[in-house]
TrEMBL record:
Transmembrane segments: none annotated. Keywords: Transcription, Transcription regulation. Residues 202-300 form the HTH araC/xylS-type domain. PANTHER family: ARAC-FAMILY TRANSCRIPTIONAL REGULATOR (PTHR43436), TRANSCRIPTIONAL REGULATORY PROTEIN (PTHR43436:SF1). This is AraC-like DNA-binding protein. PROSITE patterns: HTH_ARAC_FAMILY_2.
Length: 310
């Protein structure tokens, strides 16, 4: 029987193997798409400033370096042999906090399709630990050997591209299965089960995302979720760590930042596009989230992008 030291050694060997494969396919810093549509690889040689995104459901396994993600004041730090799961669309900021040219931050990111999770639940005997409980829509956990092993086999398919159509779906399915078996897998499970509180909140999140520029109508969202307004607020905050209104504001402001960065458009026009009636209120809330007024922030972002590309 393996001792605890043997088990740790096996995990470290598998982690080093995965780091070597990721490093081989990431010659330069950045987020690299791959021949496997749901899989991307990440390399960063230096710590980064916080990046605000609307994070879609996905799995991130870190094999080198360390990163922190922030959700409405909550921080989630993960490093080598940790994995991070987001089960619903969440407005998150993230920054690499440990990386160097000698030991860059290395990570794989696999998109998660809730329908695949549901199909897996239906065809396997994955036990539910707390059925019906509303869970936060993200978590960090330690990476087990079986999960690492499946991840290595998935990434190694990039070396034999002809195998990808047949084997990639099997390995991604195994990875999801391993997560569901873990202690915090219930968070992912509840998002996929129709009728659960988490599933209904996921419907509300999709609605807010789709109509983010429209006025928020809590009664309509509560009806969509088959909840009272007070229950909607409670369960929404359980999943997202914020209220529906706060969520909508984050989505609006992040979309505004994207528009300002990608188009020649002034802040007042962007404010109206994303649903604000008052440009001054937009500027105040923008500065509160991103630390600088819109024009100053965009100028700094463009300088940072220029410096990173030279």
């Amino acid at each position: 029987m393996n001792t605890a030291d043997d088990a740790f050694h096996d995990i470290e060997q598998k982690r080093e193997e995965l780091a070597a494969v990721i490093d081989r396919f990431c010659a330069q810093d950045g987020i690299h798409s791959t021949a496997i549509p749901s899989l991307s690889l990440v390399r960063k040689s230096h710590p980064t400033s916080p990046v605000h995104t609307l994070h879609e459901p996905s799995l991130c396994i870190v094999v080198q370096g360390k990163k922190v993600k922030m959700l409405a004041g909550e921080s989630y730090v993960y490093g080598p042999s940790d994995y991070f799961v987001v089960s619903v669309d969440l407005p998150i900021s993230g920054a690499v906090i440990e990386a160097s040219p000698e030991e860059p931050y290395l990570c794989l990111r696999m998109e998660i399709d809730p329908q695949e999770v549901l199909d897996l639940i239906r065809t396997t005997d994955v036990p539910s630990k707390q059925a019906g409980a509303t869970r936060r829509g993200l978590f960090v956990s330690k990476t087990s050997y079986p999960l690492l092993d499946a991840a290595v086999r998935l990434v190694r398919l990039l070396e034999t591209s002809r195998d990808i159509p047949v084997l990639a779906p099997l390995f991604t399915r195994e990875i999801l299965y391993r997560i569901l078996l873990e202690n915090q897998g219930e968070s992912l499970r509840q998002i996929a089960i129709a009728g659960s509180n988490s599933y209904r909140i996921a419907d509300v999140i999709r609605k807010i995302k789709q109509d983010y520029a429209e006025p928020l109508r809590i009664e309509e969202l509560a009806a969509l979720a088959h909840m009272s307004p007070s229950s909607l607020h409670r369960h929404f905050k359980d999943v997202t760590a914020m209220s529906p209104l706060q969520y909508q504001k984050r989505v609006r402001l992040q979309e505004a930042r994207r528009l300002l960065l990608s188009q020649a458009i002034d802040a007042a026009e962007v404010a109206y596009r994303v649903g604000y009636d008052s440009p001054s209120q937009f500027s105040r809330e923008y500065a509160r989230l991103f630390g600088r007024p819109p024009i100053t922030d965009i100028k700094q972002l463009r300088r940072n992008l220029l410096a990173a590309n030279t």
